[in-house]
Design a protein that fits this description.
Number of strands: 0
Radius of gyration: 15 Å
Helix content: 55-70%
Order of helices and strands: HHHHH
Shape: globular
Structural class: mainly alpha
Number of helices: 5
Length: 98
C-alpha cells in the first residue's frame, strides 16, 4: 500500500505522521501475511480484500496509538472473515484442481 493512497483514505493532508504511517503500512502487511500466508496474492479480488483489511488495521492502530486490544473489545467479524477467506485461498485452489 502506498503512503499517499493511505493518507487520502484517512484524509490526512500534512506530513507529520508520514513515518508513523509508513511503519503501520509495513506492520499491517507483515501481520496479514503472517496470519494467512502469501498465496492469496495470486487473486486480484483477494488482494483488494487484503487492502481493505490493511486499511482497517492501520486506522485502528492509528486511532488507538498502539496494538493493545482492551479486554472489553468485541470480536470484529469482518476482520475474521477476511482473514479466513485469505487463508483458505490455497485450499480452494487445491479443491478446484481435484
Amino acid at each position: 500500500m502506498e503512503l499517499e493512497f493511505l493518507k487520502n483514505v484517512l484524509k490526512i493532508d500534512d506530513t507529520e505522521e508520514d513515518v508513523y504511517l509508513e511503519n503501520l503500512i509495513e506492520v499491517s502487511d507483515i501481520y496479514i501475511t503472517s496470519m494467512v500466508g502469501e498465496t492469496f496474492k495470486e487473486d486480484a479480488k483477494l488482494v483488494k480484500l487484503s487492502e481493505l483489511l490493511q486499511q482497517k488495521l492501520i486506522n485502528d492502530m492509528r486511532e488507538n496509538r498502539g496494538t493493545e486490544v482492551p479486554g472489553n473489545t468485541k470480536t470484529d467479524r469482518i476482520v475474521l472473515s477476511i482473514l479466513d477467506k485469505l487463508a483458505n485461498y490455497e485450499s480452494e485452489i487445491i479443491w478446484a484442481i481435484k
